[in-house]
Amino acid sequence: MSRQKAGALVSVQVQLQSGQQYCYSTEGTFMTNYVHSRRAFLATGTTTLSALQAWPAIAATEVAEPPAVTVLNPQLRVPLSFVVDDSTCLVNMGHFCMPQFATAWPERNEYKKPWQTWPREIPDSFVREFGQWCAQHGVKGKYSIVPFPACVGWVDRELPGWSQKQLQASLKLVRELMVPNWDIHPEMITHTRVIDIKTGRPMQDINPATMENSYPRTKKSVDEMAVYLAYALRILKNCGLPCEGVTTPGGFGNLVKNELPLAVHEAVRDVSGSELPHYFKYVVNGTESALPRLEHVRNVDGSDPKVTVNVPACTGDWFGGWDGDRQSEPDRYANEEGTSGRMVELIKRGEPAVMLCHWPGMYTQGTKKGFTAFKRVVETLNSRFSDQTIWMKLSEIGRYWTAKELTRIILVDRKVSFNAPFGTPNFTVRVPGTAATTNAPTLTVENRTVKLQPVTQTRLLRSGTWHADSKGLIVCFDLPKGVSLIQW
Ligand SMILES: [Zn+2]
């Protein structure tokens, strides 16, 4: 069960008395999930506890026994992911953004750096080098394409400073090399100036209110936000780039945190038709949960369930920084031995370990020192934890946790039925039983039954297999949307 882990502050089991199924924290975040056949919740954390106590017709009691069916991590592995912010085609955002930020925030010293001396381009040869190395090492994550980067040009039309041929080659490279392993997100429209979407021109006044990093400065409706997001998404769609989510630049949306996930849902569904929109905005620190948050969960039992998944990162940018002028500190992610660092801490905790960087920091103004440091971290993680981890896109992590939290699971004797509003690959559950007394589990979907294959070690678990240990059976299968059945 996802929230049952070391370090949890409070653990309560909550019996549902009214058929009421969902509970939201004070921030509107979906906090709980089904755990077993008695249609009960298990929730942890003081915020959640108080929210649950406030919920009508729910009574909290001490945990008496472990849940009969537990949803585990995919293939029993901790998800790893890499978030790349501020990437786009060719344009070095470090070089082009800084003078615009300096105009909007003249008092800030951080925008008085010598941007004129920084390369204006992050070349496609580097995208190729990075993308190929990541593909060889299994790395997956999120890669931004800012659609109108720092107002330099529109990636679906013209990028002044580069030929049409170069722009098209750059987009082709992203489509062919990056898309298979990376979610592509717009990072709003420009990452600098707010665009008047009626004219396509930046707002006339230049101040924090007309910069995307601090937009909006007044309350906006869900529809107003959705129209802005959809504008960005449509440019990438014109380039043949599929998007199931967005990344917010800096403090974008801070004033509309409740409206934002609804706007993301509306915009992503409108432009791409994807059933499960997600977004990246937040970074979690310390002991704060690193699990994806399911927001504005609606109509879960209907034919069109709606959720927006908020997938946080869990580290700072300790590579080359926003401008590519920082000294990399790879040990803060994982030291060479793999015994300390934030990523090691999260892997040990069993929660998704999502690390963060900015694209100019990978390129590091041509020295690629950030990329070198990143490679060292990945090599450490892959050698020390390869049997315990799995690289995933943000959308894949979001999907897995959505299925984990929203699937209704009912255990009767040696049968478990799953009713899933959203399916996911590699769904992994523990069910009661032992190897000695049980038959091989089977999976039934729509009258078709297949026998699952035994594996001798948990590290061999993949979809369509099972393994027995002292605590029961672990079954791994592709959970379909709708109804499925495991029996043994
Ligand atoms: Zn950014």
Essential attributes:
488 residues; alpha/beta; TIM Barrel; 3 domains; five-stranded mixed sheet; 10 helices; 25 strands; globular; disordered N terminus; binds zinc ion
Query: Per CATH, what is the topology of the largest domain?
Result: TIM Barrel
The hetero compounds bound to this protein are: zinc ion
Supply the CATH superfamily name of the largest domain: Glycoside hydrolase/deacetylase
Overall number of structural domains: 3
The overall strand count is 25
Classify the secondary structure makeup into a structural class: alpha/beta
Shape: globular
Strand content: 15-25%
How would you explain this protein's 3D organization?
It is a single chain. By secondary structure, the protein is of the alpha/beta class. It folds into three domains: 1-67, no CATH class; 76-396, Alpha-Beta Barrel (TIM Barrel); 407-488, no CATH class. Helix content is 25%, strand content 23%. The protein contains ten helices and 25 strands. The chain has helices at residues 46-54, 93-104, 124-136, 164-178, 222-238, 259-272, 342-349, 359-363, 369-385, 394-406; strands spanning 11-16, 29-30, 40-44, 58-62, 70-71, 78-85, 141-144, 182-185, 195-196, 201-202, 245-247, 278-280, 293-298, 306-310, 353-358, 389-391, 408-412, 415-420, 424-431, 442-445, 448-451, 453-454, 465-469, 472-479, 482-487. β23 (465-469) and β24 form a beta hairpin. α3 packs parallel to α4 (164-178). The structure holds zinc ion.
